[in-house]
Write a structure and sequence with these properties.
Length: 260
């Protein structure tokens, strides 16, 4: 199994629009370091058998899939319905071509409700266009395309985000983005995972996201094998942060491939 980091940036990406003098705003990130150029977060997991699962449909999805030569998906999962995690959903349309039916999609019940409300045409078709995704509640899902799937609701400010654990080929990858508190349910699900891809917005605490100390704490209490930091903002320079984290922690970047 392998996991590809399609995007590693926060909701505005890095660099951010609207910098001083009309320039791109790199914050503390070195613009000469390609790994500091970050699109919005998503991952793709691929099993040894070739099954591919996408988590989230960010606004940069088309360019991310092209950059990583991904032209087929077997299922899509959503963590929550914030714009940076779902507003690239239309980019699934070409991946529906040639399929006998819609792409299977899964999310927590509240996220299903919100996605259906916002993108009804994706899940029911419209004006002769076919249904793109068959969206279902996660509650009864245990297996998907050869992956065992576990999930947990995580506090994300005034709402929840879904954390996932995917097992295949004797390895496990946990995905925990957009949370601001570590819960027992998260630790129980992620404990002993081979790879933990974890929210790490900045160094200072934040009301809706994990900061560096919280990200490292989750990795430690879960006894994660390798930890990949993601959802990084413009204060998190790749080289500076890489020099500050433990050896088993990787600063994520767009296009990074990790094999457990």
């Amino acid at each position: 199994m392998k996991v590809t980091i399609l995007g590693s940036g926060t909701s505005t990406g890095v660099p951010r629009l609207g910098g001083e003098g009309g320039c791109a705003d790199w914050g503390l990130c070195d613009p000469a370091e390609p790994r500091n150029r970050r699109t919005r977060v998503a991952i793709v997991l691929e099993s040894d058998a070739g099954a591919r699962i996408l988590v989230d449909t960010p606004t940069d999805l088309r360019s991310q899939l092209l950059a990583n030569d991904i032209h087929r998906l077997d299922a899509v999962f959503w963590t929550h319905d914030h714009a940076d995690h779902c507003h690239g959903i239309d980019d699934l349309r070409p991946l529906r071509y040639g399929r006998a039916g819609p792409i299977p999609g899964y999310a927590h019940a509240e996220t299903v409700r919100r996605l259906r409300q916002r993108f009804g045409y994706v899940f029911a078709g419209q004006y002769g266009y076919p249904t793109l995704v068959s969206l279902e509640n996660l509650d009864t899902l245990r297996l998907c395309e050869g992956f065992r799937v576990g999930h947990v609701q995580m506090p994300h400010g005034g709402m929840d985000s879904t954390g996932f654990l995917f097992d295949a080929d004797g390895k496990s990858v946990a995905y925990a983005t957009d949370f601001n508190e570590i819960t027992k349910g998260m630790v129980d699900l992620f404990y002993g995972c081979d790879v933990l891809v974890v929210d790490c917005l900045r160094r200072e605490p934040h009301p809706t996201h994990a900061h560096l100390a919280m990200s490292l704490e989750l990795a430690d209490v879960c006894r994660a094998g390798t930890t990949v930091l993601t959802h990084l903002d413009k204060s998190m320079d790749y080289a500076t942060l890489s020099a500050a984290v433990p050896d088993n922690v990787i600063v994520g970047y767009d296009g990074l491939v990790v094999t457990p």
